[in-house]
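In response to reviewer comment 3 from the previous cycle, which asked for concrete evidence that the modeling workflow produces usable outputs, we include below a single protein chain processed end to end. The sequence was submitted unchanged, and the resulting structure tokens are shown without manual editing.
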Amino acid sequence: MCKQMQRHRLVCVTQRSACPDDFLTRMEQIIAQKPARIILREKDLSLEEYEALAKKILLLCKEYRVPLTCNGPVPGFTLAGCGVQLSFPNRELPVQGEFGVSVHAPEEAAALWESRASYLIAGHVFPTDCKKGVPPRGLDFLQAVCRQSRQPVYAIGGITPERVQPVLQAGAAGYCVMSALMKAPDPVRLIQEFYSQEDGCHEL
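The workflow returned the following structure tokens.
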């Protein structure tokens, strides 16, 4: 069953090392398409470097009214006006604003039933270069997480336009895309391909 929550279901997770051109220019192109959220990953940066980049991305997000979530080199790092993405082990860190939690098992989703987390990210669902050699968990895993979760669930890992409808039909509120958006010759065109698949999923 598709959980209709917002006009667009795509969450962009950044990976500037995969970007073949100017990262900030690409990010503005992506943000202008109004995805559901931007998650600034960039785990290789120092705290100072990450904060400087986050401030630049936040300005773009504010311009286009797209939420920005920080997933910095320090667990729980946040910037005023941003959300925070936490790992499951760090789920109880004191966070003042909005936050999401990454989960890898239905039991973890169930354990967050009373959490004030705004959403969960579950993966990896399909094979992905980011997890080479690690078997994907599949759509049955995603469906089980959605059933155990009180919060909306976003799938991550190997999401392509062709996989959007199966992901939404499994119960996910949306999906995360990282490498594909960072590497695409035309990220705007790719985003529109994703959005066209969202339009084909109707609530049952």
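The longest strand covers residues 83-87. We consider this sufficient to address the reviewer's concern, and the full set will be provided in the supplementary archive.
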